[in-house]
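Whiteboard transcription, Tuesday session. T.W. wrote the structure tokens on the left side:
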């Protein structure tokens, strides 16, 4: 009996600093990850993704010309199956929220350890979000609070037309995801099995065309389901 091994992720590294690109390439290559291309700015990154079709892009936020945020938008628009990890030297950079809203799967600080960098690339390549739910929630709380949100309609279970496909239970799960609960915490809070929670989460992703949990958290804030500072213990759906 042979053991099936997953193919190595194919990665493009986009950063205007050559030393950063070289360092990341050496780290990833040493850990069995295939770096298929590099880019020194956003325009080069978009062109490289179009040409090379990588699985994951490591995208610096601050680059000359087209910055990483606009490049991420264009990459994800032309290659929906590609995963983008934003790179920043600043924790909770204010551009990161916009990147998550555009579809990026998470962010990394440039001083990330070698092991964490490789693990992050492999994680998002599986379709998961890089950020833990609680970290995503704190990030969104910090930068989403100033964005205008639609006024909630208390007479309907959905506060935004984009949420209309959700069932009442899926609506509840999305709300709690937005408040930072993991699948295990959701299961405990709703008295459900983790398998059932995962099914609800997967259906939410499909119905709302979301890539991962990071986008789900953003949607929960942008639609007014969740407001900064809410606690799931005191602001549960339907209470």
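and on the right, the sequence the group agreed on:
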């Amino acid at each position: 009996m042979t053991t099936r091994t997953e193919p190595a992720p194919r990665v493009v590294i986009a950063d205007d600093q050559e030393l950063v690109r070289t360092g990341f390439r050496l780290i990833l290559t040493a850990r069995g990850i295939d770096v298929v291309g590099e880019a020194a700015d956003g325009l080069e990154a978009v062109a490289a993704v179009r040409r090379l079709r990588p699985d994951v892009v490591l995208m610096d936020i601050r680059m000359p010309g087209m910055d990483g945020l606009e490049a991420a938008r264009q990459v994800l628009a032309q290659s929906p199956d590609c995963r983008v990890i934003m790179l920043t030297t600043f924790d909770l950079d204010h551009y990161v929220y916009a990147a998550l809203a555009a579809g990026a799967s998470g962010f990394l600080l440039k001083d990330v350890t070698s092991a964490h960098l490789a693990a992050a690339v492999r994680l998002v390549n599986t379709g998961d979000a890089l950020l833990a739910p609680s970290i995503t929630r704190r990030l969104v709380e910090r930068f989403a609070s100033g964005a205008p949100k639609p006024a909630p309609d208390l007479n309907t279970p959905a506060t935004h037309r984009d949420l209309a496909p959700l069932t009442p239970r899926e609506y509840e799960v999305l709300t709690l995801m937005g408040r930072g609960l993991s699948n295990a915490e959701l299961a405990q809070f709703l008295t459900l099995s983790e398998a059932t929670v995962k099914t609800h989460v997967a259906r939410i992703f499909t119905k709302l065309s979301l890539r991962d949990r990071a986008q789900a958290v953003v949607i929960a804030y942008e639609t007014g389901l969740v407001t900064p500072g809410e606690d799931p213990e005191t602001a549960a759906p339907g209470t």
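Someone added at the bottom: The radius of gyration is 18 Å.
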